[in-house]
Amino acid sequence: MNDLLWWQRGVVYQVYPRSFQDDSGDGLGDLAGITRRLDHLKWLGVDAVWLSPIFRSPMVDHGYDVSDYRDIDPMFGTLADFDRLVARAHGLDLKVILDFVPNHTSDRHPWFQQSRTSRQSPKRDWYLWRDPAPGGGVPNNWISNFGGAAWEWDALSGQYYYHAFHKAQPDVNWRNPEVRREMYDVMRFWFDRGVDGFRIDVLWHFIKDAEFRDNPPNPHWRPGMPPHAAVLQKFSTDQPEMVEIIRELRQVADAYPERVLIGEIYLPIERLVAYYGQDGDGVHLPFNFQLVTLPWDARTIAAAIDRYEAALPAGAWPNWVLGNHDKPRLASRIGPAQARVAAMLLFTLRGTPTIYYGEEIGMHDVEVPAAMRQDPQGRGMPGTGMERDFYRTPMQWSAGARAGFSDADPWLPLADDCTRINVEVQREEPGSLLCLYRDLIRLRRSEAALVGGSFAAVPAENDVLAYFRQAEGQRLLVALNLGPRPAVVACPGIRGTVVLATTPGRGSSKIAAAVPLSAHEGVIVRVEA
To answer: Where exactly does CATH 3.20.20.80 map onto the chain?
Structure first.
C-alpha cells in the first residue's frame, strides 16, 4: 500500500461551489465558505477536494463558460481567497483538484471576441468556423447537448461557429497548436499555484472530425429522450487524434510531482479505457460512470465490474463514482436503504472512489419550482430529465436557519427535510449514514486489501453482489444485498468470518461460513480460511 500514490490510496470529494457554504451572505457559496468547511472533509476522512469551476465566467452555464482561465470569478472570491483555501487544505493534508474546462470558452472570452471580428483575425482558427451548407443552413447535422443545432450563425463574420453545449460556449479548435500551448500554460499556472490535479471537463469532445461529416442517426432514439441523443456522436467526439492530446496533457502534469488528471468521459468501457493512453501516458483516471448510469441491479453491476476489470490496460488504476452535479442524486435513484449498500460498494471496489457533496448524509433531489430554475440545459429541454438544478441544491449543515448554508435566502431551495438530514444531526447519531461513510473510509484506509488488494468475484444469485479483496495475507469478503428480501452468501471451505462492518451497524461478531444478509444489507467480513 505504501507504494501507491495519494490519488490511488485516497478518496475524492466533489464540491459544487455555489452550493457548499456561503460566507459572504449573498445566498451563493464561495471560497471562504469552502475553506471554513474543510474541517468537515478532514473529519470525514477524504483525501482530496475537487472544486467544480471557479474561474471568471458570465455564468451562463454556472462556470462551465470561462471568460478568464487565470482568475477567480468574483462570485466565489479572489485569487487570494483561493490561495488561502489551498494553504488551509494542504495544512489539513487535503489535496485540491480544479475543474478545467478547455473544450470551450465563454463567447465573452477575449479569444472569441477577437476571433469573430473577421475571417482574417489571428484568433479565427482558435474556434470552429464553417460556411453554410450548400443551399444554405447549418454546416452539418450535429446537435447541441443543450438542444437544437450545434451551429450558431454569426452575422458579423458571415459563418457559423460550433458549440457542443450552449450557444454562449463556443468550442475551441484543439487541432490548432497555439490553442494547445495556451491551454497547457493555463494548467501550469494553476500547478505553480499549488493545485494537485485537474478534473478535465468533456475530454472526449476535444477533437472533431476534420471533414465535419454528418453524424449517423441513433436507431434507439425515441420521443421524450434528450434531443442530442437523436444522432450518434461518431464524428463530433472521441476522434483518433485524442491519443496525441491526452499524451500531451499527461506530459504537462508529469512535470510536477504527484499531480493527477481525471477525465470526464461518457463512453462505453472499451473506449473509456483508451483514455489511459498507450503504456500509461494518458489521463490517470478516466471517470468510470457505470454506477451512475446502469440500473441498480446486482447481476448487471456484477457483469459491469467484470467487464471493466477485464478491459483495464496493464498497470491502469480503476475508479468508481456514484453521483455528480449532472445526474440525479443517489438517494433519489435507488432509495435511502440502498444508498447505504452503495456506499459500501463504493469504498470496497478496487480503485479510487469519488463522493458528490451531500451523498454522505443522503441528500436527495429537490423539486425546484419552474420560476426558480437556473440551469440553461434544463430550461432548454424541459421534461427530458435534464433539469440539473434538482441535484445542485445547498449543502445541509444543520437544523438551523437555511440549514447553516447561508444567512441569506439560498440561490436554490433547500429540501423540506433538511432539519433532519444534515451534518450536525447525523454526526451525533452512531448509526447515521454520515457515520457509516466515515467508518467505511476509516476501514478502507486501515485495510491494505481494500486499497491495493486484488479483486475476485464470488458466485451469487438474484439480488446479491459478492467479492473478495485480498492483500498481504488478509482476505475480506464483501457481500451486498441489493434487494428487499433476505439472502445468504455461501462460502464453502471457509471456517469462519469476523464482521468488520455492516450497513445497519450490526456490530462486530463471529458468523459461520454462510453469510446471512438482511434486506438492503451489506457486510464486510474478514475471512478465516
So the answer is: 6-103+177-441
CA-nearest of 263, 69, 83, 79 to 184 is 69
Q: Is 264 a catalytic residue?
A: yes
pLDDT single digits (tens) 352-404: 999 999 999 999 999 999 889 988 876 666 665 678 999 999 999 999 999 99
Burial class (CB in 10 A: 0-12, 13-18, 19+), 109: buried
Burial of 501: CB neighbours in 10 Å, binned 0-12, 13-18, 19+? buried
Kindly report the CATH class assigned to 6-103+177-441: alpha beta
CB 224 within 8 A of CB 201: no
Residues in the chain where the model's pLDDT stays below 50: 507-508
What pLDDT shows up at residue 1?
A: 63
- What is the CB-side half-sphere exposure of residue 129 using CA atoms within 13 A? 20
The answer to whether 17 and 34 have CB atoms below 8 angstroms apart is yes
510 Cβ neighbours under 8 A, 6+ residues apart = 496, 497, 498, 499
Q: Of these residues, 61, 201, 375, 447, which one is catalytic? A: 201
Residue 457: beta bridge partners? Answer: 467
Which letter does DSSP use for residue 204 in this model?
G
Determine the Cα–Cα distance for residues 488 and 114; give it in Å rounded to an integer.
66
φ/ψ of residue 526, rounded to 5? -90, 125
CATH 3.90.400.10 in the chain, residues? 110-162
| DSSP conformational letter for 393 | P
Active site residue 387: no
Instruction: Give me the pLDDT at residue 238, please.
Output: 98
Q: What would the grid cell of residue 343 be?
A: 456506499
Query: Does the reported pTM lie above 0.85?
Result: yes
Give the class (CATH, top level) of 453-528: mainly beta
Active-site residue (options: 264, 360, 375, 387):
264
CATH homologous superfamily, domain 110-162: Oligo-1,6-glucosidase; Domain 2 (3.90.400.10)
340, three cell numbers: 447505504
Task: For the chain, give the mean pLDDT.
Answer: 94
